[in-house]
Amino acid sequence: MQSSQEKDNQPINSTVNKQQSSIRNAMYKSIYNNDIEQIKRITRLFDFDPHEEISSPGNKWCPIHYSCYLNKPQSLEYFIALSYRKYKNNFQDIINIQTKDGYTPVMIVALSNSIQSLQILFKYGGIDFSQKFDKNKTIFELIQKYSNDQFKEQFNILYAKNNCVEILPINSLDLEKFPALETLMDQENMQKELNISQKKQLKELLLNGQRNPCCICLSELGYIKYTICCGQPMHESCKPTEKQKCPLCSRQAFQLISEILYPERALIL
């Protein structure tokens, strides 16, 4: 895993796509449901970046875009803070990252009239109002054509309040003290504190471990998947169809995936 400093020095020009489709779908559903805890969990377990593509491959819609489009200010605020935490030197690139059609996050809130998300974008800054889409059109032309009167009024107030600058200054003060940042740093510190003995045990488990049976039917036969919330082994056919919560940990967004999230629960020596 790369360090934050190594990541921060990488140029960011467009969305990246490094996750399997099941994880991308899980992230989208978490944003749609405004499930912040699940968003944090997926981010932590899969080292999910805020500029990773979660749309159909090639459309280049990342979590920030969808948070703007669906008007999920809590999700948007988290991904903005995560961008600053992991890619401080590239923060402006991410906050202005474009979809396949050239839309930046602020353009998307204009298309969807998402006033709360607009306020979040202005709060943390970094917006480049000179960005172009569709043959050199700007955010101002898009607002004029597609936004409703309420959105236009709010945009004009915020834009004037910030002296109508071309690039909005980054609000480092608020970004530095965002509560989620402490959690992310704690996770990094916990990872660093893994001692050699623990790493050796994990390596031995991954190399030589035998898979645990399905936690419902206790059979080792067939294709076993794992709960995305707590990593327990389970057959798709054993999954309780009537339950929306995990029968083991009672968390929402119950789903089975192929990836092993917790080797110590999936395997045994």
From TrEMBL:
InterPro entries: Ankyrin_rpt-contain_sf. Residues 1-20 are annotated as: Disordered. This is Ankyrin repeat-containing domain. It comes from the Eukaryota. Residues 10-20 have a biased composition (Polar residues).
